[in-house]
């Protein structure tokens, strides 16, 4: 019986449990055995009871659970070859030669590296007499499939990552709560949201809540942004608006060049416009909590597709990620998706915002 491992890795995201549930049950329905790997790559390196066979009823009710119930971790030892060698040994001794990983770009890059190195890891295990040639014979290839789990929606090649709509929903709810109190006191609020170097959460939160102004990592504001922002906020107030909401993406805040910080925005609003202004950093409430309906659906459909991709894989086909493009669940090359994702982050780090924007535009135009 084929044995397929499932793991969640990197930052947790709502919907990861739905993905694990779908993978476990589809694996069993296809006549294979399912193994849960606990605490991300840490479980693969440590082995033992961190790798557990999963049965149908083990994942009952998981669609409505937030976070990831099989745990996640940042694992330093998997970054080094000796850690990956141990991971390969643990997999072979448990008879697992296929892995489905739900994580961000880091986790998926690590997975592809592992797959690439696999034949040499296996050879080394035989050389060191840790395993026999007979033992490794059925494990010539490692089969990897990626599911993109991240609240940031920062992966190229897919329209949505598992978790991003739950996070957006949470941000909208939080802004609605703030709206009520802001309206009452006629206050202004500067709200910092997550997203790392991706402005999707901030932009879509701005669109969905009717914010007055938004700061994004991919698009630095014009030279005269201070006057711009004050002018727009003032205009809205003159039109009778009793509250002001400015959304700052954490990635825009981090950029030294943009010289934007929630404190600076607050000072402008209070000193130039005389508004009673407060700062709210939403923080980890954006990550926790139950998955919204969309993420439950996405994780389930993609989890099913991930198992199908494992069973379809040929030794020489490149590892796929499961994406959603224009509402269709599709497979895309993992390496290409990671490369495109890194290109945007690199362009922002190099302060080449025109390139960052054109890469994002190209994604939408695809
Ligand atoms: P995310 O998957 O959310 O982007 P990280 O970048 O922290 O999160 O990656 C999660 C884990 O994946 C790391 O702790 C490490 O174990 C593994 N990993 C990430 N990048 C690599 C890499 N280049 N080689 C091997 N393992 C990696």
Automatic annotation (TrEMBL):
It is found in: Cytoplasm; Mitochondrion outer membrane. Mg(2+) binds at residue 105. Residues 1-366 are annotated as: N-terminal catalytic PFK domain 1. Substrate binds at residues 150-152, 187, 194-196, 250, 278, 284-287. The active site is at 152 (proton acceptor). ATP binds at residues 11, 74-75, 104-107. Residues 3-310 form the Phosphofructokinase domain. Catalyzes the phosphorylation of D-fructose 6-phosphate to fructose 1,6-bisphosphate by ATP, the first committing step of glycolysis. Homotetramer. Belongs to the phosphofructokinase type A (PFKA) family. ATP-dependent PFK group I subfamily. Eukaryotic two domain clade 'E' sub-subfamily. Belongs to the phosphofructokinase type A (PFKA) family. ATP-dependent PFK group I subfamily. Eukaryotic two domain clade "E" sub-subfamily. This is ATP-dependent 6-phosphofructokinase. The chain holds residues 16 to 381 of 779 of the full protein.
């Amino acid at each position: 019986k084929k044995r397929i491992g499932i793991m969640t890795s990197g930052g947790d995201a709502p919907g990861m449990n739905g993905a694990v549930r779908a993978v476990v049950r589809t694996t069993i329905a296809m006549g294979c055995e399912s193994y849960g790997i606990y605490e991300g790559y840490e479980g693969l390196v440590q082995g033992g009871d961190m790798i557990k066979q999963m049965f149908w009823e083990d994942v009952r009710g998981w669609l409505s659970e937030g976070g990831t119930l099989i745990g996640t971790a940042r694992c330093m030892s998997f970054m080094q070859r000796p850690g990956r060698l141990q991971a390969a040994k643990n997999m072979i001794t448990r008879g697992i030669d296929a892995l489905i990983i739900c994580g961000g770009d880091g986790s998926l890059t690590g997975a592809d590296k592992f797959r690439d190195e696999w034949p040499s890891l296996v050879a080394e295990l035989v050389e060191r007499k840790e395993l026999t040639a007979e033992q490794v014979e059925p494990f010539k290839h490692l089969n990897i499939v990626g599911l993109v789990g991240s609240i940031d929606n920062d992966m190229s090649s897919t329209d949505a990552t598992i978790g991003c709509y739950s996070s957006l929903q949470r941000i909208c709810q939080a802004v609605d709560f703030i709206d009520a109190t802001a309206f009452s006191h006629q206050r202004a609020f500067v709200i910092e949201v997550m997203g790392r170097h991706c402005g999707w959460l901030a932009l879509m939160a701005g669109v969905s809540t009717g914010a007055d102004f938004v700061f994004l990592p991919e698009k630095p504001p014009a030279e005269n942004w201070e006057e711009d922002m004050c002018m727009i906020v003032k205009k809205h107030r003159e039109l009778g608006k009793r509250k002001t909401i400015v959304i700052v993406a954490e990635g825009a805040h981090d950029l030294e060049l943009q010289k934007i910080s929630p404190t600076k925005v607050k000072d402008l609003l209070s000193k130039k416009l005389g508004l009673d202004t407060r700062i709210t950093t939403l923080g980890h409430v954006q990550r926790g909590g139950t998955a919204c309906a969309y993420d439950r659906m996405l994780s389930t459909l993609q989890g099913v597709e991930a198992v199908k991709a494992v069973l379809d894989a040929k030794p020489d086909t490149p590892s796929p990620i499961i994406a959603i493009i224009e509402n269709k669940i599709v497979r895309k090359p993992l390496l290409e998706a990671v490369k495109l994702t890194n290109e945007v982050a690199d362009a922002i780090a190099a302060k080449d915002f025109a390139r960052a924007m054109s890469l994002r535009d190209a994604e939408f135009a695809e």
